[in-house]
Amino acid sequence: MGAGGGSGGRREPSLHQLRLFLVLAQELHFGRAAARVYVTQPAFSQQIRSLEQRLGVVLVERGGRSVRLTPAGRSVAEEARAVVDAMARLRQAAGRHVGAARGLLRIGSLGAEAAMPYAQAILAHLRGRHPDLEIEVRNLTFLDMFSTLLSGEVDAAFLRGPLPGGIQSLHLASEARVVCLSDDDPLADRDVLTLDQLAERTVVDMPPEVPRSWWNHLTVNPRPDGTRVRFGPVVRDTEAMVLAVTQGGAITFLPAAARRLYPRAGITYVDCPELGLSTAELAWLPDHRDEPAVSALREAAHQTVRQPGSTPADSAPDA
């Protein structure tokens, strides 16, 4: 039998696919299910079709975006829930033997998020308290910032909100957002800009795999007057985003920390209060929150992050 295993050489379903199917079984609507886990509807549908191919049965009766479970789908949903629950128990059982001070903790970082002061303070606290815990920080792009967490490829991640449903988080910091323009843009010499002044500017865009709702939120699309943003060059990470601006023809919006983290010849950062705040979050899956390594990370974050006038608290998953 080949490495794929299974009946007739079919590959085994992945835990990620089972989780997605359980969401679909609850929502019975591809659009709502995809939005709930923050993936595009085509990507979500592709995962469900792949699951059907791996199992060799049709799980849903498709009629537009709404669906009904087939008899096989209802049976598989019951077993899928048992598999997902069993995997959570397995992780917890293994974690109890590993202990919080040992093992491997995989942390994702969207761009330079792990270099931010609050992230560095959390990691330093964690290493000091748990010297035998191996910490691996993985760089995430816009393409995989949510999927790697949802699939379990990383145990937790330093991300920027808004976060998808099904993810828990600890708010780490908030900061202003700024406009990134090329030096030769006529607006580059302004101290402050408004969205009206930027109405004719082309904005850097995200690949189709990135949840549209996330990027629309961060680009204020549509604008308060109802006009749609005109998007331009497509990028997959912050470095490419800044490079696209230096080449002219597009602008983008970034947290104010970009002034320090991404200073580049040929670009200027200008304040724009109407963009609102950028929120930094430490994120994890509810099933993983009590695993020793993740629990140690969460505790380190609670101990080191203090916001003026408030106490950080775990946020529940979005409904």
UniProtKB/TrEMBL annotation:
Belongs to the LysR transcriptional regulatory family. GO terms for cellular component: protein-DNA complex. Residues 13-70 form the HTH lysR-type domain. The keyword DNA repair does not apply. Pfam families: HTH_1, LysR_substrate. This is LysR family transcriptional regulator. Residues 304-313 have a biased composition (Polar residues). The keyword Transcription regulation applies. CDD domains: PBP2_LTTR_aromatics_like. Residues 300-319 are annotated as: Disordered. One of its GO terms (molecular function) is DNA binding. InterPro entries: LysR_HTH_N, LysR_subst-bd, WH-like_DNA-bd_sf, WH_DNA-bd_sf. Keywords: DNA-binding, Transcription, Transcription regulation.
